[in-house]
Amino acid sequence: MKILIVSTKQRLSDYVEFVDALNFEGAEAICVNNLKYCFLGETKPLYVVPVPRLLAIIKRFGPDFVLTDSPYYVPQMAKMLDRPAFYHMRGAEEGKLTERKWDIALYPSIFARMYTLYLAKIIVPSMKKTDLILPNSMWLQKQVEQLLPNHPTCVLYVGIAPEKWLPNNNERIEVKHPAVVGVFQFTIYAKFSGFLRFMNVVKRMPDVNFYFAGEGPYFNLAKKVCPPNVTVLGKIPKPKIKKLLEAGDVVVHPSGLDALPRSVKEASLMEKAIIASNVGGIPEIIKNNQTGFLCDIDNFSQWIEKIRFLLENPDVARRFGKNARKFVAETFSWRTIARGFLKNIENFVSK
Question: How far is residue 204's CA from residue 181's CA, in Å, rounded to a whole number?
Fold first, then answer.
């Protein structure tokens, strides 16, 4: 099976790993983005490929289908060469599915606001032009089926490379214990609203130290609402994220809404017990009472109870952490994802 993946720039590293796994499973896959052309096993892109050459790439490579994480123009180009187009839906920021409420106040330029609103308007018609939508969680699949009830869907989880996330107790960031840590993106208000509400938990635990890494347009607001026992670290590189996760006694993810947060998978692979909001696709990556705890974002007493329990019972936290790594490594490794994907897609492509 020949597979062409057309990736947006910010997700390119994920799809390079996916291509590697697909080829290992016997497929012939390559990855293109609007700037780069990538091959199996390469950590850095090899060739610069402008967008206008995408048609030539499709024609020359002759894929069985084209998979993209951006439905705006790629499906139309695939159709021009009579190739099926699959849309890998990574989050519900698409129009009326709205994990993202398009908050135009975040964009100072009138042109940026107009373009943002234009994308929100055309996302659903663009999705309809694809042959198959691949939501990245079962929760998101249900959202798609409600909006487009007759459109074919199949879940395609975003994988992770377990070998890149290995616990190393000798490398840690200096924190004050007890320490609760989290990696959080302050970019989408529906997600960020959970962080805001979580501050009610933090205020009731003045003896516990909280550390959050992340960035986004709501970063300054996050710093303003945090009580003194919270440190907001801002954007930090991946090696430092590992050290932060290592240093924490417990990891929390108090999101208002999430399709399948990568940071939860990363924390799991670092063998950390996780307490997260029981929303969106999060229950698909946390096994309640086995790898962590799921809490109602507005049940502040529940959050406090679970955090206290794990801080006071480190043996349970360690057991949860071991379970978490095993579950995520077995379920969400790119090799596992690629194997299941090829099996699911074979029948669809042959029709």
Answer: 16
Q: Could you tell me if 265 and 245 are in contact, meaning their C-beta atoms sit under 8 angstroms apart?
A: no
**CA contacts within 13 A on the Cβ side of 180:** 27
Question: Mind listing the pLDDT tens digit for each residue in 120-149?
Answer: 778 888 899 999 999 999 999 999 999 899
Strands (E), 113-222: 132-135, 179-183, 209-213
Domain residue limits at 243: 162-332
Are 184 and 61 in the same domain? Answer: no
Confidence class for position 95, pLDDT limits 50, 70, 90: very low
The answer on 184 and 64 residing in a single domain is: no
Q: What is the pTM of this model?
A: 0.88
Evaluate whether 218 touches 186 at the Cβ level (below 8 Å).
yes
Same domain, residue pair 152 and 250: no
- 210 pLDDT band, cuts 50/70/90, is very high
pLDDT value at position 120? 74
**pLDDT of 102 higher than 60:** no
pLDDT tier for residue 37 given thresholds of 50, 70 and 90: very low
Beta bridge partners of 38: 31
- State phi, psi for 82 to the nearest 5 degrees: 60, 45
- Calculated CA dihedral for residues 189, 191, 195, 197, nearest 10 degrees: 80
Instruction: Dump the DSSP string for 86-106.
Output: EEEE-SS-SGGG-SS---GGG
Residues 168 and 317 placed together within one structural domain of the fold: yes
Same-domain check for residues 54 and 13 = yes
Rounded to an integer, the average pLDDT of 25-39 is 73
- CA 297 to CA 16: how far, in whole Å? 35
The enclosing domain of 99 has a CATH number of 3.40.50.2000
Number of domains within the chain: 2
26, pLDDT greater than 90: yes
CA distance 88 to 71: 9
Say how far residue 178 (Cα) sits from the centre of its chain: 28
Q: Do 108 and 239 share a domain, yes or no?
A: no
Same domain, 129 and 271: no
Tell me, yes or no, whether 203 and 251 share the same domain.
Answer: yes
